[in-house]
Structures are given as structure tokens and as C-alpha cells.
Amino acid sequence: xxxxxxxxxxSVLGRALPMRVLVVNDNPDELTLFAQRLxxxxxxxxxxxxxxxxxxxxxxxxxxxxxxxWRMPSMDGLALTHELRSRGVSDTYVIVxxxxxxxxxxxRGYLCGVDDYLLKNLPExxxxxxxHVAFSTLALRRSLQEAHSALESSNQVDPVSGAVNAEExxxxxxxxxxRAQRYGRQLTVLTVGVDAAAQTAAAQPDFLRRVVQIxxxxxxxxxxxxxxxxxxxxxxAFMVVLPEAGPADxxxxxxxxxxxxxxxxxxxxxxxxxxxGLAALDRGGGEGSVVEAMDMLGVADQCRACxxxxxxxxxxxxxxxxxxxxAIACRHGYVVDDDCAFKAxxxxxxxxxx
Length: 354
Hints:
Blueprint: H1 3-10, E1 20-24, H2 28-40, E2 44-48, H3 51-60, E3 65-69, H4 77-86, E4 93-98, H5 106-112, E5 116-119, H6 124-154, H7 166-183, E6 187-194, H8 199-202, H9 207-218, E7 225-229, E8 237-243, H10 250-261, E9 274-281, H11 293-305, H12 312-323
Helix pairs in contact: 3-4, 4-5, 9-10, 11-12
């Protein structure tokens, strides 16, 4: 991420957070007085008379700032903070009110997750200033977290094509496989390679990025995804991962992708420019056997190399798919009279229904 992008993310400081403050105090008079002081300065407040009541409020609504009394029966301010942090709540800024007594253990409070301490009798001008600092600090933390997440995401993207990079793709495919097998779901992977006829086009700087953009526009947003594959030959190849799609869906999806990509390789309809392979985890999740990501890509690539007609290549693809408990379009046997439905290119545009 460049400096300009970082600066843009850090501008979240100027974005208004909800000015909500949860005030916790077991003394009803002090609770009312303190809440009214904050309300007079324009803050929206909620009140809780005990730590458990505060936790219930926090379960229902997010409060950017929590101001709690230290000394309370049953659950004091430090115990409340510790419980809040143990629940994974890190985006609430916690201020503990103190009388400034010598025996108070500030270090233990910081270990519990307390962000700041305020004296109960603090002048109003300083009180308002410190609460505004709390909101600014929280906004800065959130902006840094967003920037860090963006940096992590950018490291997972192939800089040439814009697809998920090869290493992250394998990791994601592994997770998709385990999830599908755990719940008996279908999962299909299409491998897409640039064929020899399109190598000249593939050498153009923006070609692969356009390929990925087109494929992403065809498949389902936020469900399907496109990743880069490392190949020994160095010829560009991708995986299109399709959760909840089975082997019978493959020909339709492949045709849709091929139709969308056709415009990238010239006007000659005989030159598709792309080769497709398929491997699928059918319902039942591989019959109780663990399917590995590399095996799935291997089966799909063998399908990609198959001409789609009965012969040694198709027989080898079927044998490998059976050995790895994966389905391919011709998994019930190889084609005798007709071309493989997956390898054929039906006339017209395929339906968008899956």
C-alpha cells in the first residue's frame, strides 16, 4: 500500500464515531450526576448500576467508550474490564474512575485491559478533553487495524493478474475442501490455462489482469473466487473455485467463462485461447476419504490436458479421478460416440442459472 492510500485510511480519524458512552456506578446519585455532565457536553449516555448489567448492555449495543467506577460490590471496574477483554471486545475504550488513593493498583488495571484512569472530581473541561481523547485514540486504533488488514490482503494478491496468489490459493482451497467434506457439500474447481494460440496475447501487460476481471464478473461474487496456479512450464493458469457446485454444473460454467473470455483472443472463433479442466467433490465429501488440494488440482489439470474423446488420455483421467475420490465430467466411464460434454462448446450462450 502506498503512502497516499495509508493516509486515506488514517483519515478515519475525521470520521465521526457514535458518541456513545456507557457509565457504570453502583452509587445512583454519582451515576446520575456523571451521566448528566457528559450529556451536557453532547455525549449520548447509557447507565448501568453494576458490572453484570453493563455486560448485558454491551451484548446488545456497541459503546465506543466505557467509564466505570473502580470500587463496586460483586464486580468492580477491573473485574468488569477483564471480563470484557476475555470476551474478545477490544474496540471499547475503558476508563476507570478513581479517587486517587495510594493503595490503588494501577498496574493490575492496565493488565486487565484498562486504557485510562480519571479522578472522580476532575474539572469538567479536563473531563471533556480526556473523553474526546478516548474517541480519537479509538479511531486511530481502528484505522491502523484497517490499514494492517489491507496490507495483509495485498500480500495475498498476485501483483501481475490480481488473482489470489498461488500460495494463498492452495491454503484457501485446502480450507474449502475441509469445510465441504465436513458438511457433505459439493465443491468444484475449474482450472483455466492460456493455450499456445494465446501466448502472444498473454505476454501483454494487462492481459492476465483482464482475464481475472472477466472471470470474477462471471462467477458469484463473495462466494466463488479465482486464484493463480504455479505451473512448471510457466504458462499462465488459474483455478476458479466454486463452492456448492457439482460436476454436472461444470460444462455450463465453463461455457459461460469461455464465452466471456472469447473477446480477448481475437475474432477467430476457432481459437478459444483457453483450456479448461474440472475436478469436483461430489455430495458425500469423497466417501469419507480425505481429499487434498494438490490432488484436486492434479485431476483438474489432467482433465484440462484430455482431448475429451475416448482414448488413453481420457482413461488415465478417469483412473486418477477414481483413485483420488474426485469426480470429473466423464467419471462414470469415458465417451464412446460423442465428445465429452465438458470439452464440447455448445452453440449459443449458456443460461445464467446454476
